[in-house]
Amino acid sequence: MNIEIQSRLEALAFKKTIPFCYCCYSEAPTGRCAKCYSDDLMRLLPGIGCEYGTEWVIEDLLRNIEKVDISERFEDSIRSYYPKETSIGWLKVNTASAIKDLDPISWDLAKSEWADSEEQEGTLLTFDNGSTYFDPSEIESFLDSEGV
Ligand SMILES: [Zn+2]
């Protein structure tokens, strides 16, 4: 996990939301409810909803950022590592397509291992344990444009 991006996303989540007292069902922009004086406040994201914490806000913010097509990115990387064509008997076949067709399970396994290692190197980011991936630079330019 990229700590810097994570904390900038949190900063943006705070910026986009208003503290909200669920008991009184009113906004509490000072961080303390003016009616019941509670500081046990939810975050209100106007037009979306209110809930405790910022994780769900970050999830919503990430909708603005284009996801990485892992299958496409992985296939590109395989194409760059192996010769474009492979001979099988008298056939010349596209190496990546052949692997995928001959052993789709091994292909998928290699793809998820590749995604893990890209994430460890910091070239891909996931916030949901690998269901979706983002390009860190895409998130950074989104954060830049939001001024956080
Ligand atoms: Zn209150």
In short:
It contains 6 helices and 6 strands, in the order αββββααββααα.
Structure description:
The chain is of the alpha+beta class and 148 residues long. It has two domains: 3-64, no CATH class; 70-123, no CATH class. Helices cover 47% and strands 14% of the residues. It has six helices and six strands. The chain has helices at 3-16, 55-61, 70-81, 95-102, 104-121, 136-146; strands at residues 18-21, 26-27, 42-45, 49-51, 85-88, 91-94. A four-stranded antiparallel sheet has the order 2-1-3-4. A two-stranded antiparallel sheet has the order 5-6. The longest helix is centred in the C-terminal third of the chain and has 18 residues, at 104-121. The protein is elongated. The two termini are 18 Å apart. The model has no long low-confidence stretch (mean pLDDT 95). Bound molecules: zinc ion (ZN). Residues 21, 23-24, 33, 35-36, 38 line the site of zinc ion (ZN). Zinc ion (ZN) binds next to loops.
